[in-house]
Design brief:
Layout (H helix, E strand, L loop, with lengths): L13 H12 L13 E3 L13 H19 L3 E3 L3 E2 L4 H11 L1 E3 L27 E3 L1 H26 L9 E2 L3 H17 L2 E11 L4 E2 L5 E17 L1 H7 L5 E5 L8 E6 L13 E3 L6 E6 L11 E5 L4 H9 L25 H10 L4 H15 L7 E10 L7 E10 L6 H13 L1 E3 L4 H9 L5 E2 L1 E2 L10 E3 L42 E3 L3 E2 L1 H5 L2 H6 L5 H7 L2 E7 L3 H16 L4 E7 L2 E2 L16 H8 L1 H9 L7 E2 L2 H25 L1 H7 L1 H12 L6 H22 L3 H28 L16 H21 L4 H11 L12 H8 L6 H20 L8 E8 L1 H9 L1 H8 L4 E5 H5 L23 E7 L3
Parallel strand pairs: 1-2, 3-6, 4-5, 11-13, 17-24, 23-24, 25-26, 27-28
Antiparallel strand pairs: 7-8, 7-16, 9-10, 9-12, 9-15, 11-14, 12-13, 16-18, 19-22, 20-21, 27-29
The structure holds one RNA strand of 74 nucleotides.
RNA sequence: GGGCCCUUAGCUCAGUUGGUUAGAGCACUGCGUUUACACCGCAGGUGUCGUCGGUUCGAGUCCGGCAGGGCCCA
């Protein structure tokens, strides 16, 4: 017969063993029959599978799992699905590089297509070398690769010990997710939240797609002010009686042909006489007005600026508020349009534009500077500056602004009433930690436009509309054709709208499909609706929504969190969740944020294998929500040691109580023995004190976890556990063995002394409590021990309560102070031997233990245990105050150290006599 | 330019409503193979609480200024 409890405990290999067992037993399977009150539902943001996992993921997902395990043990049915965010641009880019292909929607589908190669080894393939393939072939490759990536993700998460219900994984690109995204879109269309508009749009020229406000970032870029002269027009000359030029400074001289006005601040004295009059643009000779607007900065350049359609977002504001004409010069490819914009009509102007047409903005700037210079309208050399420029966060070139038809969702960016409602929603949400709330509020209050959701890309959820084709062959965008909700998901480029035939596609009198797809966020903002079964499972939806918890990183408050609130507010008139738990960043040892681009990431699987999952989880759980944490392998080593300690201390407790003896014959016998011993009575003061201290810790840990403070809960449990191991176990060891010989199997049912029985009962109660307190953080080690002598999974066992411990400890328990005093006494006895550099086994023939009066009772109550643990043959307990008096034994002792007056509040020893070695 | 967070031992961090002499772990040093554990145990030293000022009988803690670090938004 093999022993149930191993001779040599180890944390290695527990992950695979327990993951298999949990899967087989359905330990984390969600029970759909439960009601909303019984359920705790968690909306984990699905990670982007095309990005690699890093320790930051392990960190924040562990925080969530600790909450999930705690709530499950508290009796809540935990709804904890996991998904993969696989649609969108990151996947497209990865597929392009991995397979060496490129999507060309004009190409036909090829059956059984195989890409030129596989596993691009992370190198990017030049666009020219990529094989063009049809959209459907491209999407198939996206699906093939994400399926592979998802397997790796799941394997890592399982290894980490996430207590996810793996039968409920979902993908944001799956047909059912697409149907949810499309249904939410259509309902928004009916309610008026989703709309299309022809408007200036931030545009990435590399990816050739529109970009939303949330995807922007400012980057410092070098630029230069060019000082240009505008000639006054006739009305200005008349008004001012002067022929002097107006000098402006611009960083984008190539936009001069797109100039529609000059603007200065209304209070700027220098330009008062010019407002309402006109000037002529250099080179192009276009007459434009001088206008006033408060956004013009008198401090900047010459205080007067040119407005172009469009150089930046301020131009858009001016254009809109001042109702200026549109004269675009930049195309979707980032090059100057072939034809001069309206307004340029002179021969010289058209010729000048001809010099620029087709050039990139970079080349166009060089060329126009030459032209301006030759014309003598450029004053001096350009003045270099550094200034912030808007970029797509995933892009490499500055964004341009082009005017296109796009789809939007109202998010409070253009509507003060909706903005106020969304701010109010944010104040209903319980942010953990609370200060993260301001990020939400700052963002919502600072919105400048609605949410642009259409993308001119391929791998994503199609916008589910068609348009009638008018007699002249142009689409009638005003009257989109929509599918029924039952028919979702649809792909308008393949499916045909009701009442039409496939042959009518793209012909006058027929229809045309919308080609754009939705932004990834337009789907991932609907994860509560996707996982809770909004579209197809009303019972599940009622049992899980609104959800309890949204855990996430601080970086996506303005994007993911906010957009999810927007959708839930619109569709359900409620928050999507009650709590938002915000994890911090992982910083590398140089205090820099870990990120792929910095090349300082550590692969998570390697860490888990080196230190063990419990150890890595310990490191993560020791960091508070909202606080950045250092990547610290030292902390993982401590976690590993704690897990090892759990195994070894448990071995001791089970051995000394005799439970191990019973458990070795069968699990049932072990369970019965543990139940019998746990039901015994605790009579010794030290045992009672330990149980009271433990009850206090149970209360503190429970309160902390209820407040989403997993760090505090771990800290109090861990601290007492080490005291339990280092002091309490050492003190009661001899008593608990009750004279059993080394190696002798203890019979749990054999009669023993009442003092031994007291220790055994206390040990059994304490072990069961400590294991459960630590189970959320160390799921593997605690489950391992639980399996030695307890029924079922510890992770489905009720969270410990303090009341039974207090009852066992009894009214008379002296609590934590007695435990502390006994530990302190043990420590000073050890110190005698440590300072004498002898083994702790060396007997102390006699010793005086000087104890402050306040602690004397505690020490006397644990005296027999102290004698045994310290191998003391004779001990006198002396009052520290009394020992300071003359003529009292203890003063001027031979170990009589120094002139220092001994601190009467601290225990110490005197007159120690050690046995000969 | 506006906002948020942080600054405590060599390192990583606790320090709750202001209250004795500011704590823990790691690292370091010495000792020790004990019927749980060498992936171990025991013992030991370690501080201008960033800085200047204010409130208070009393400030690491509350208030203000400054410096440094990180993040978000313009």
């Amino acid at each position: 017969m093999t022993s149930r409890i191993p001779d040599k405990a180890t944390v290695d290999g527990l992950e695979d063993r327990w993951n298999e067992a949990w899967e087989a037993a359905g330990t984390y399977r969600f029970d759909e029959s439960k009601t909303r009150e019984q359920v705790y539902s968690i909306d984990t943001p699905p990670p982007t599978v095309s990005g690699s996992l890093h320790v930051g993921h392990v960190f924040s997902y562990t925080h969530t799992d600790v909450v999930a395990r705690f709530q499950r043990m508290r009796g809540r049915e935990v709804f904890y699905p996991m998904g993969w965010d696989d649609n969108g641009l990151p996947t497209e880019r990865r597929v392009q590089n991995y397979y060496g292909v490129r999507c060309d929607p004009t190409l036909p589908y090829v059956e059984g297509y195989e890409p030129p190669f596989e596993g691009g080894e992370g190198k990017s393939v030049k666009a020219a070398d990529q094989q063009p393939i049809s959209r459907r072939n491209f999407v198939e490759l996206c699906e093939r690769l994400t399926a592979e990536d998802e397997k790796q993700f799941e394997s890592l998460w399982r290894h980490l010990g996430l207590s996810v219900d793996w039968s409920r994984t979902y993908q944001t690109i799956s047909p059912s997710s697409q149907a949810v995204a499309q249904q939410a879109f259509l309902r928004g269309l009916w309610r008026g939240e989703c709309y299309q508009a022809e408007a200036p749009t931030l545009w990435d020229v590399t990816f050739r797609t529109a970009v939303a406000q949330a995807e922007l970032e400012d980057r410092e870029r070098p630029g230069a002010y060019h000082r240009l002269a505008f000639e006054p027009a006739a009305d200005m000359e008349e008004a001012t009686g002067s022929y002097e030029s107006v000098w402006i400074e611009t960083t984008r001289p190539e936009l001069l042909p797109a100039c529609v006005a000059l603007v200065a601040h209304p209070d700027d004295a220098r330009y008062q006489g010019l407002f309402g009059k006109h000037v002529r643009t250099p080179l192009f000779g276009v007459e434009v007005p001088v206008v006033a607007h408060h956004l013009a900065n008198p401090e900047k350049g010459s205080g007067i600026a040119m407005i172009c359609t469009f150089g930046d977002v301020t131009d858009v504001t001016w254009w809109r508020e001042l109702r200026l004409p549109t004269r675009p010069v930049i195309g979707w490819d980032g090059r100057m349009l072939p034809d001069a914009p309206a307004g340029i009509s002179s021969e010289a102007g058209l010729a000048a534009y001809g010099e620029l047409a087709g050039l990139t903005t970079f080349s166009a700037q060089k060329r126009i500077v030459e032209l301006l210079s030759e014309a003598g309208v450029l004053d001096g050399a350009p003045r270099p500056i550094n200034h912030p420029v808007k970029f797509f966060e995933k892009g490499d070139k500055p964004l341009e602004i082009v005017t296109t038809r796009q789809w939007y969702i109202r998010n409070g960016g253009t509507d003060a009433a909706l903005n106020a409602e969304l701010v109010a929603r944010g104040s209903e949400l319980d942010f953990e930690p609370d200060f993260m709330r301001v990020r939400y509020e700052n963002w919502v209050r600072g919105l400048t436009g609605d949410w642009l959701i259409s993308r001119q890309r391929f791998f994503g959820v199609p916008i589910p509309v068609w348009y009638p084709v008018l007699a002249d062959g142009s689409p009638d965008y005003e009257n989109p054709l929509v599918p029924s909700e039952e028919s979702l998901p649809v792909d308008p480029s393949v499916d045909v709208p009701a009442g039409f035939e496939a042959s009518q596609r793209d012909v006058p009198g027929g229809f045309t499909g919308e080609k754009d797809i939705m932004d990834t966020w337009a789907t991932s903002s609907l994860t509560p609706q996707i996982v809770c079964g909004w579209r197809d499972n009303p019972a599940l939806f009622a049992a899980t929504f609104p959800m309890d918890l949204r855990p996430q990183g601080q970086d996506i408050i303005r994007t993911w969190l906010f957009s999810t609130v927007v959708r839930s507010h619109a569709e359900h008139g409620t928050l999507p969740w009650k709590h938002a738990a915000i994890s911090g960043w992982i910083l590398d040892p140089d205090r820099k944020k870990m990120s792929k681009s910095k090349g300082n990431v550590v692969t998570p699987m390697g860490l888990l294998e080196t230190h063990g999952s419990d150890a890595v989880r310990y490191w993560a759980a020791a960091a508070r929500l909202g606080t950045d944490a250092a990547f610290d392998e030292g902390q993982m080593k401590i976690g590993r040691r704690l897990a090892m300690k759990v195994l070894n201390a448990s071995k001791f407790v089970l051995g000394a109580t005799g439970i191990a003896t019973a458990a070795d014959s069968s699990l049932e016998a072990g369970i019965a023995a543990a139940d019998t011993i746990a039901a015994g009575s605790v009579t010794e003061p030290l045992d009672r004190a330990m149980l009271t201290a433990l009850a206090d810790v149970v209360d503190a840990a429970t309160t902390a976890l209820e407040k989403y403070d997993h760090t505090r809960a771990l800290e109090v449990a861990e601290t007492l556990f080490w005291t339990f191991c280092d002091d309490y176990l050492e003190l009661v060891k001899t008593r608990a063995y009750d004279g059993a010989a080394p190696g002798e199997a203890i019979d749990p049912y054999a009669p023993c002394s009442p003092a031994a029985a007291s220790a055994r009962t206390a040990l059994t109660l304490a072990l069961g409590t400590f294991l459960r307190l630590l189970a959320p953080v160390l799921p593997f080690a605690t489950e391992e021990v639980w399996s030695w002598y307890r029924p079922g999974s510890i992770h489905r066992t009720p969270w410990p309560e303090s009341a039974p411990l207090r009852e066992a400890a009894g009214e008379a328990s002296q609590g934590a102070p007695l435990l502390a005093a006994a530990g302190e006494a043990l420590s000073v006895l050890r110190k005698v031997k440590s300072e004498a550099k002898v083994s702790q086994r060396t007997p102390l023939v006699s010793v005086d233990l000087l104890v402050p009066a306040a602690k004397a009772g505690f020490v006397r109550a644990s005296e027999p245990d102290l004698l045994a643990a310290g191998r003391v043959e004779s001990m006198q307990i002396v009052d520290t105050e009394a020992a300071l008096e003359p003529n009292v034994d203890g003063l001027g002792s031979e170990d009589g150290s120094s002139d220092e007056i001994a601190d009467p509040t601290v225990m110490r020893t005197e007159n120690a006599v050690l046995a000969e070695a």
